[in-house]
Design a protein that fits this description.
Layout lengths: L2 E5 L4 E6 L3 H9 L2 E4 L1 E2 L3 E5 L11 E4 L3 E5 L4 E5 L11 E13 L14 E7 L1
Antiparallel strand pairs: 1-2, 1-10, 2-9, 3-10, 4-5, 5-8, 6-9, 7-8, 7-9
Length: 124
């Protein structure tokens, strides 16, 4: 599948799209420009995409999995604990569709502050 880039101004993160309906919808909507929000060790932002929750959607993710939150609708990148995590898990607000895999260490997003402009584009 294709690659996408999240550009937060001072840092970028590339990801590889998975073969899912959500990934296809997000790729079709690119480029996306939004304003980042944070929730614990998660960065998320509005995405102009309407996709239903997929059957394998889940709230607990592995850092590096890029998720789409249907209730947002938003893209969520968890890189550690959130206010509802149990133990060391990365738990998003509710089940999300996993649509991409980060190609770098998502913990690099820790300095991103609410209000940071984020642009998502296709790579290559």
């Amino acid at each position: 599948m294709a690659r996408i880039r999240f550009d937060f101004g001072t840092l970028t993160l590339d990801a590889e799209l998975l073969d899912t309906p959500t990934a296809e919808a997000i790729a079709a909507a690119l480029p996306i420009t939004s304003s980042a929000l944070t929730w614990g060790e998660e960065v998320y932002f509005d995405a102009p995409v309407e996709v239903a929750r997929e059957k394998d959607a889940r709230a607990v993710v592995t850092p590096g999995e890029i998720a789409y939150w249907p209730e947002g609708p938003a893209i969520a990148i968890g890189f550690g604990r959130t206010p509802i995590s149990k133990g060391d898990e990365t738990r998003l607000a509710s089940p999300c569709n996993i649509f991409a895999e980060a190609l770098g260490d998502v913990r690099m997003l820790a300095p991103v502050k609410a209000g940071t402009k984020v642009t998502v584009t296709k790579v290559g």
